[in-house]
UniProtKB/TrEMBL annotation:
Annotated binding of ATP, by residue: 108, 157, 189-200, 215
UniProt keywords, alphabetically: ATP-binding, Kinase, Magnesium, Metal-binding, Nucleotide-binding, Transferase
Any Gene Ontology CC annotation: cytoplasm
Protein name: Inositol-tetrakisphosphate 1-kinase
GO molecular function, one term: inositol-1,3,4-trisphosphate 5-kinase activity
GO BP annotations, alphabetical order: inositol trisphosphate metabolic process
Family label: Belongs to the ITPK1 family.
Binding site residues for 1D-myo-inositol 1,3,4-trisphosphate: 20, 61, 168, 200
Protein's organism: Cuerna arida
Length: 295
């Protein structure tokens, strides 16, 4: 979709799905842009971008299309190549966010590794131990878990973190018998008990907003079968999953509510933004119920 704009107006070229646009109240955002001298133009990735600009800013949510290129989709590959060619030919354009940095964010293991190597420990924040599993062999995976310090129970997550419904399908593995349930490539990460409360940090540049969400209840190593769940179903504001409800014994032990430390959150946001090179992102933070540490 192309729009005519005034000669004195700067153009923000954007691309995201129609569903995402509606969710983000994009019409209101367009009004804010106009007040500041910017015109919002949705890029048509099926046509040359040279005829749709010139863009001052490219703002995008291209994760789904990038994932499709990784899966060999030729149309998606052509779309991404068109965007990258425009950016290369117009180096003055501000891109939110750089495609190479978005690609890193798509890989959970790469993302966790980058943040793990940062200075979060300085503020007593941490990433729970994790390891990437690429084999179907249970013995091999058991050795990798032990070497990486991953404890039971752990969360098993697809390596690809965005771009499809499958990336939200996860498991809680309680014991070595459950290792056979893992579907590589995936990331195994020690589960941190956090009293079923998740804090989502919505980051825009150096600003962020904290929203409290329901989350998974406390789990412990046991002989029980693996639990399969969709992360979208347990962390939405209106989630009603049984997995969100603390067991009676945990309710008795945890009578005080968990709370975040604003200073630690500020360091987490600054560190993650800097390490990943992102201006727009979401960060999930939980408070370990036994220590009060931010994870």
């Amino acid at each position: 979709m192309e729009k005519k704009v005034g000669n004195d107006s700067k153009i923000i070229g954007y691309w995201m799905s129609e569903k995402k646009s509606q969710k983000l109240k994009w019409t209101e955002f367009a009004g804010v842009c106009r007040k500041h001298g910017f015109s919002l133009v949705k890029m048509n990735l099926d046509k040359p971008l040279e005829n749709q600009g010139p863009f001052t800013v490219i703002l995008h949510k291209l994760t789904d299309i990038i994932v499709q290129t990784m899966q060999g989709n030729t149309k998606a590959k052509a779309m991404i190549e068109e965007v990258e060619a425009y950016i290369e030919n117009h180096p003055y354009v501000a891109v939110i966010d750089p495609l190479d940095n978005v690609r890193k964010l798509l890989d959970r293991y790469v993302t966790y590794s980058i943040i793990h190597n940062s200075n979060l420990e300085d503020v007593d924040a941490f990433i729970p131990t994790f390891v990437e599993l690429t084999s179907d062999d249970v013995r091999t995976n058991s050795l990798k878990l032990r070497s990486a310090g991953v404890k039971y129970p752990f969360v098993c997550k697809p390596s690809v973190g965005h771009g499809s419904r499958e990336c939200h399908k996860m498991m809680i593995i309680f014991n070595e018998n459950g290792l056979a349930d893992c579907k590589p490539p995936c990331v195994a990460q020690t589960f941190i008990n956090h009293n079923a409360v998740l804090f989502k940090l919505y980051v825009v540049g150096d600003k962020y907003r904290v929203v409290e969400r329901p989350s998974l209840k406390n789990f412990y190593a046991s002989n029980q079968a693996s639990i399969h769940f969709d992360s979208h179903d347990v962390s939405k504001p209106d989630s009603t999953s049984s997995l969100n409800i603390l067991d009676p014994e945990d309710m008795e032990k945890n009578t005080t509510s968990v709370s975040t430390d604003p200073k630690k959150l500020a360091v987490i946001v600054e560190t993650v933004r800097e390490q990943l090179g992102m201006s727009l992102l979401g960060i999930d933070v939980v408070i370990e119920n036994s220590t009060g540490r931010h994870a």
